[in-house]
Amino acid sequence: MKTEEKIQQLQGMEQSMQQLLLQKQTFQAQLMETESAQEEIKKSEIAYKFIGNIMLRSSREDLEKELMEKNETLMLRIKNIEKQEESAKEKIKKLRSEVLEEIKQKNKK
């Protein structure tokens, strides 16, 4: 593969990494929201939840269960993204060093 192609591939990989980081941030924000909601439910005797544009009274136990399940799902997604992130970082690092080495070799000629 030519150096220029590797540089383009590297740029694409870095863009993919940015997308992963944005997804991770989104899931982390959602996780913080659900954790905050769990804390609020513990303080309140009456609980409500949104279904579409309607807010309905719900049992605390059901809401706590739903939020705990949502937290688990979000944590799994975050862990999955972190694994993808680590893999991508390694590939980027390897490709970057290949490109830099090829550029050094061309400059020596």
Would you give an account of this structure?
This protein is mainly alpha-helical and 109 residues long. 83% of the residues lie in helices and 9% in strands. It has one domain: Orthogonal Bundle (Helix Hairpins), CATH 1.10.287.370. It has a two-stranded antiparallel sheet. Strand 1 and strand 2 form a beta hairpin. The protein is rod-shaped. The model has no long low-confidence stretch (mean pLDDT 94).
| SSE pattern, N- to C-terminal | HEEH
Q: Domains counted in the coordinates: how many?
A: 1
Distance between the termini: 19 Å
Classify the beta-strand content into a percent band.
Answer: 5-15%
Q: What would you call the shape?
A: rod-shaped
Main beta sheet? 2 strands, antiparallel
Mean pLDDT: 94
List keywords for this structure.
109 residues, Helix Hairpins, two-stranded antiparallel sheet, 2 helices, 2 strands, 9% strand
Brief summary:
By secondary structure, this protein is mainly α. The chain is built from two helices and two strands.
What's the arrangement of secondary structure elements?
Layout: H1 3-43, E1 47-51, E2 54-58, H2 60-108
Antiparallel strand pairs: 1-2
Helix pairs in contact: 1-2
